[in-house]
């Protein structure tokens, strides 16, 4: 195998593990206290029964001392799951003015159906004021990440 082929193979392998996801604001409003630059999902597609990490790059003009992440998941348009997380468990608090990263990892049950899902995430401050609301899609594969490679 040539060196060029090896580099291309490595690039294709890595690009299937982590991929940036298209993010949209829930209300098509571009003015939020927290602006989201992007979401990376690893691995992509997510493997059932294996750890998955959602990394959300964001920016704020105000310090955030506390808050919640409210997450709703849909499968083929049907709401199937909701969960709430303490913002400070997913990022370092207080969140300083500027860029920050919210990272959430979890293992999806092995019985999770494969397919395309949509996720809606609201970020609320300590007074339950909405700071941002985003939505994006993600895929869950048929097997484990080792079997898909």
What's the helix and strand layout?
Elements: H1 3-17, E1 19-21, E2 24-25, E3 34-42, E4 51-60, E5 67-75, E6 78-86, H2 87-90, E7 98-107, E8 115-125, E9 130-140, H3 145-148
Antiparallel strand pairs: 1-3, 2-9, 3-4, 4-7, 5-6, 5-8, 8-9
Please explain how this structure is put together:
The chain contains 3 helices and 9 strands, in the order αββββββαβββα. The protein has one domain (3-148): Ganglioside GM2 activator (Ganglioside M2 Activator Protein, Chain: A, Distorted Sandwich). By secondary structure, it is an alpha+beta fold. The longest helix has 15 residues, at 3-17. The strands form 2 sheets. Strands 2-9-8-5-6 form a 5-stranded antiparallel beta sheet. The protein has a 4-stranded antiparallel beta sheet with strand order 1-3-4-7.
């Amino acid at each position: 195998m040539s060196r060029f082929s090896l580099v291309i193979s490595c690039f294709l392998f890595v690009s299937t593990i982590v991929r940036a996801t298209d993010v949209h604001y829930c209300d098509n409003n571009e003015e939020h206290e927290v602006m989201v630059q992007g979401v990376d999902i690893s691995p992509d597609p997510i493997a059932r029964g294996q750890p998955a990490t959602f990394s959300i790059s964001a920016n704020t003009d105000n310090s955030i001392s506390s808050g919640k992440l409210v997450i709703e998941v849909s499968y083929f348009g049907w709401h199937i799951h909701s969960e709430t997380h303490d913002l400070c468990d997913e990022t370092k608090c207080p969140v300083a003015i500027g860029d920050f990263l919210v990272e959430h990892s979890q293992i999806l049950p092995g019985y999770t159906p494969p397919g395309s899902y949509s996720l809606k995430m609201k970020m609320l401050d300590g007074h339950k004021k909405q700071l941002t609301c985003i939505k994006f899609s993600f895929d869950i594969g048929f097997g484990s990440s080792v079997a898909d490679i």
